[in-house]
């Protein structure tokens, strides 16, 4: 039953309209909202008019919108019931205002003429946060999914809810919509289009972790760390994209707020939490390499008032990978509960468990240079070649996590926030690694050394802070005082066989070899390896003040860190090591940014970093902690009236005591002195229209050994030998870091007059060449990759399929054979064409 209201209505009609509105939101079939006064002349979609609609009931907000815009709005009453909106205020086009009113509701507008619009359920009910329009009252959730490809606020840069255009450093947000459109399976894949990030230097990994891959993500030329909800994560599986609401890339030293971290920055991931509006979604997927996947994401109220809400996300996945005899399987669940205790206090509990019986990484994607990089006179080694032993091929992992987030507002000046996470990880790994060629003239035959690793870890991280706002005339201070700590314990048992297996890489087949791996002296195995334990504790005390005066924002912050590490190793067949050491450091940062009246925001910042090290040189001397310093200048531009954010920055980073592998003394590191990374980045995130979203970035990173006394011989990849006199490393490029990277990605939903409900996307990724070693012997070549995809809302074809959406995502569309990096006579191969499709149902 539909209710109508005329342009001029009587009291009886007003009563009838209100009565029918109440009935429809209680469960009648539909509701149509009309202007409550004489409609103005028709406005076009581009005409900007003033809106003032407060937060509250969506049904009431749509009624106000209809009156203010002179537009007839129709909505099914079941959809309007209990739905809420954050409101909108400012001068803008009606279609823009309506889109913001519907943000986060899982609803979308379908226009049927200039002054008629029907509100319907979208095909993918994404819990998008409300947005700020024209500098007025509405506001995005700083840990939420963002809107389209644009996020406006963040907690990651300052641990306070701050607009990106008021932070004097480079921060890039990968929104939920970007994750949906690109369908990455790992964190590395999700970061492919981010400025300043080289996310796959060691090829493609399957299991989703960033930290666990050992430098598998490079940020401004430095190895990065993985954070989850603002706390460092030691989990091997916490980077499951299905469990994430957004990913944030903080480029530059973040030590003041986060403690030990590399000067290149960090990657922070926000886990899914209960949504304010109900969310119900399931999907089934399929792809090449026998991939099958199912996911669930459900969020709803527990109590009638909605002050207690829950969310459950889960995934089951099985697939082969591009390398023969390897598989990837995972099951995982992420339940969460939010309790708004009162209007000033909230508590969120999050737990997760994931089990990955096959991580799909053994033998990786590492092969000799001859047959990959060098094909002059050598046959190319296929990506499907399994360089390992089929009966010695296992990588299983399990991870459990518990987290709570507590917030309380004492008054308008003081707030209290606390986050705690506990993680426990176990890993069992049996594989083999390349140990050189059998015959230098024939690269097809290679020695492979069997190895077994058993690893377990426990960690607890805790962050407590007081923060608030103080207004003094035209000056506003947002202050933070806090303390955090991390405690981490791990045990590792690493056994290496003394007998190698010979594998023919040009004749890939199931190679079986049973190594003797007993550590007993009577076994005669003569294995190598060690049993080791490590326990470290880091505590930091930090402060920060964000000073805002008119259009100028200034950030000042400092931190003192204390770090203690105790580790013990027992080497099989000889010796051990038992050490304890402590390090401490003070780090600070300062920056300013000016938001001009024309929306340009130039900024400058200076920041330092500290990373303790537990590595020793071959003589047993502990290497000093890493100390970094960065200067950064940039410009941010938020296009007025548009969801377009452009960031440009230039930076210079110096880091002392940079670690490299000791080529003479295998298994040890050496202090390379100072490295200098300098360059610039440009990034754009844009919702051009309601149907067109665009990402683009360019990164230039020149990282070199700035001060070093080390020397090394050059390497000839054709002969596999070092040659000539030693060359000084100072002034040479740091290996395995591309100098130039460029990417662009867009998603476009075709106009309804062409093909209603159909959308396409396309992406390009260019990664420049990078050097093999520390003396620039030769380069790994640049490569260009293409990605493509499509999505179709089947509900546009027939109402019977409302809520059902089909999607297809393809990476490396041309199936290009490419090499990511090379080093020490071997190279890593990139991922071939990956095809993934799914069906998603939302209700």
TrEMBL record:
The cross-references to Pfam families, in alphabetical order and at most eight, read:
Plug (PF07715), TonB_dep_Rec_b-barrel (PF00593)
The domain of life for this entry's organism is Bacteria
- What SUPFAM superfamilies has UniProt attached to this entry? Porins
Q: Protein name, please?
A: TonB-dependent siderophore receptor
Q: Give the record's GO CC terms.
A: cell outer membrane
Membrane topology term: Multi-pass membrane protein
Record's family? Belongs to the TonB-dependent receptor family.
Q: What are the GO BP annotations of this UniProt entry?
A: siderophore transport
User: PROSITE patterns this protein is in?
Assistant: TONB_DEPENDENT_REC_3
For this UniProt record, the keywords arranged alphabetically read as follows:
Cell outer membrane, Ion transport, Iron, Iron transport, Membrane, Receptor, Signal, TonB box, Transmembrane, Transmembrane beta strand, Transport
Q: Where in the cell is it found?
A: Cell outer membrane
